[in-house]
Specification:
By secondary structure, the protein is an alpha+beta fold. It has a domain at 51-163: 3-Layer(bab) Sandwich (minor pseudopilin epsh fold). The chain has helices at residues 2-9, 25-47, 50-75, and strands at 79-84, 87-94, 105-108, 118-120, 130-134, 140-142, 152-156, 159-163. It is rod-shaped and about 105 Å long.
């Protein structure tokens, strides 16, 4: 009875129903069902990283190809780009009469941070193969050194990287 006296003294009207604090069973179950549905939808998307890996690899290839063109423009030496199933390599010729002599050995170009441009393709990411080079003017050439007169296209996952024939513009 002392509890009831304290309520009346606090201004709580006598005879008013007392409501317990907390959630009903229906509210708890509906929240649990909602969390279960969200988990069932979000979990597969959270762990499926192939699309993100392909997009990241395509962006990395695009940046590396642009860098190869910039190196060729800055040095006046041909820069080779090789894309195959294992990844991408940026190379320059050494050991010939000059840096544009393809009879020399192709060596992988170093990155500014000390590593080399030998980029490994992520697992389960397919890229179409390509072997071309940029001349000292930034124009693309085929693997045999002949000028390219059509747009080069490399497909990486669902993305396409294109290189324009006259300017070497990488898109």
């Amino acid at each position: 009875m002392s509890h009831l006296v304290a309520l009346v003294a606090a201004g709580y009207p006598r005879g008013a129903p007392l409501r317990a604090a907390g959630f009903t069973l229906v509210e708890l179950v509906s929240v649990m069902v909602l969390i279960g549905v969200l988990a069932a939808v979000a979990t597969p998307r959270f762990f499926a990283t192939e699309v993100f890996a392909a997009n990241g690899y395509a962006a990395e290839l695009r940046a590396a190809i642009r860098h190869a063109q910039a190196v060729a423009l800055a040095s006046g030496c041909a820069t080779r780009v090789v894309v195959d199933a294992t990844g991408l390599r940026l190379q320059r010729w050494r050991g010939g009469t000059d840096c544009n002599d393809r009879s020399g050995v192709a060596e992988t170009i170093g990155r500014p941070g000390g590593d080399t441009y030998d980029i490994r393709a992520p697992r389960d990411v397919d890229a179409s193969p390509g072997d071309f080079s940029f001349d000292g003017f930034g124009r693309p050439h085929a693997a045999n050194g002949s000028a390219i007169d059509t747009v080069l296209a490399l497909d990486v996952g669902t993305q396409r990287i294109t290189i324009q024939p006259d300017t070497g513009l990488v898109e």
